[in-house]
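Xyloglucan endotransglucosylase/hydrolase, pasting as requested.
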Amino acid sequence: MGFSVLVLFVLLGLSCKGLLLVKSQKSDSNFDENYKVTWGFDHVLSLNQGTQIQLSMDKSSGAGFASKQSYSSGFINLRTKLPDRDSAGVVTAFYLSSDGDKHDELDFEFLGNREGKAVTLQTNVFANGQGNREQRTLLWFDPSNDFHTYSILWNPYQIVFFVDDTPIRVFKNNTKKGVNYPTKPMKIQVSLWNGEDWATDGGKTKTNWAYAPFKAHFQGFHVDGCSSVNSDCNSENKYFWNTKKYQSLDSNQIRAYEKVRKNYMNYDYCSDRSRYPTPPPECLDKP
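Structure tokens follow.
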């Protein structure tokens, strides 16, 4: 078990015993095997024989890359080190997204901040074009000091967002309650871009271009996902992320999840009565 995970257990007072760990990435997988650059080509640098990618952003452009294939289920992981120093206004995004107007999307958006202030991690879930499900969590470590693993578990039962091995968000399949659930084939997308109009303090804190170029680094390009060309992406026998132990959180995961929400979450759409006088039906679920 990695040092960063052990530190997290100490910070949150968690026990390692019985915790369902994220399946380890093959961190030495080559970028070109599963991904391709999609924009900002002159702001992308391949390092360590293609096992690490650097995206940079300056006033002229940011950059992005995406998976070559679309996936219909999976346990999608990416190891990321965010821009250091003053990163206010800078957005590093790791997400899954389908095509079309009524698209499905699962978002990690890292909202940069002034040096010494915590980075906010915003997550969102879109299903059939409906989003507006933002949750924001302050990261309890400096994500620019080292690589951390950010993961999205997506199967027919639940969607779980992980930071390292700790679940920070759960979105269950509530189609029986009339809640749309992401089912469309999605590509993995990664980008680094200027979000100073909204990302830090609601857009009040702007990007300090004296610190440009801003650089984000990525590792772990192996993909544990079922390609959308297959017809059995919900199979429990073929794909580990569909098996019983991935269909709900275990007791240790629930405790870790609740501690993160209590100590680090600073916005939840489910609690925003100005937007939702009556909480959306999925908000009534327990993890």
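Note for the archive: Residues 181 and 206 are 35 Å apart (CA to CA).
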